[in-house]
Amino acid sequence: MPELPEVETIARDLLASIVGARVASVWGSGLALRLGRPVDLAQIRDVAQSRRIVDVRRKAKYLLIEFEAGSRNHAPSSPGILIHLGMSGRLLVEPGDKPRPPHTHVVLSLADGREVRFRDPRRFGFVAAGAPIGERSELAALGPDPLTELDVAGLAARLVGVRAPIKAFLLDQTRVGGLGNIYVCEALHWAGIHPSAPAGSTRRRADALLAGIRTALELGIQNRGTTLRDYVDSFGTGGNNAAALRVYGREGQPCPACGAPIRRRVDSARSTFFCARCQRRR
Ligand SMILES: [Zn+2]
Hints:
Distance between the termini: 32 Å
Bound molecules: zinc ion
Shape: globular
Low-confidence stretches: none
Order of helices and strands: HEHEEEEEEEHHHHHEE
Oligomer: single chain
CATH superfamily of the largest domain: MutM-like, N-terminal
Mean pLDDT: 94
């Protein structure tokens, strides 16, 4: 499942490759994506067709493709398309004359002959338009982005009085936007915090926690994302971060910090990987 570093990698690549390009046409498969909802192609055409792409950026695990505003728009954020890759979504930039792969659901055909293709075999992804894009409710519901919007004091304030385990707190997108299971396990190991510690009890260590989160995410971005199964970048290439993971997927292997065997626990059907020596319960 693509997480923040994977989405950031795609956003940076798209920023370099498609900004300035004009969308000639929009195509859709007609099949529903997340929650069985159909994609509103008319709305996507309305913001994208015949318009130039002016920015590509990431907010939490969402990708935003922004378009020139046209005459009627003076809002601080431009009209745009919001994309979430869900479980298996891919966003590929390919020549228009290359056959579209199966499970392609939305295509932006660029005037220069290339296509931006959203492909999603499991159809948990999401593609929708907004004008301005920044006002979509999906974005408004998100907590601060851990790389760009969160500081130590802000994180500490959010932790006050929270009894839920720190791992659940970090996975809750309304508390902090953009973290998923892999990078939460990694961040807690970097910070030396036990995954089941009550979130409120880690408040005084918010500096170590934020540093751990950023280290885990930045390493992921540097390595162009973690590919365990499905994730590929916009060129169709996997990321290199799996080899750099310290605990995730490493049950029984020695902790890179202390050598004790990494443990795995399952809660709410998700695996938690941690080192019982480096991440002691206090
Ligand atoms: Zn250890």
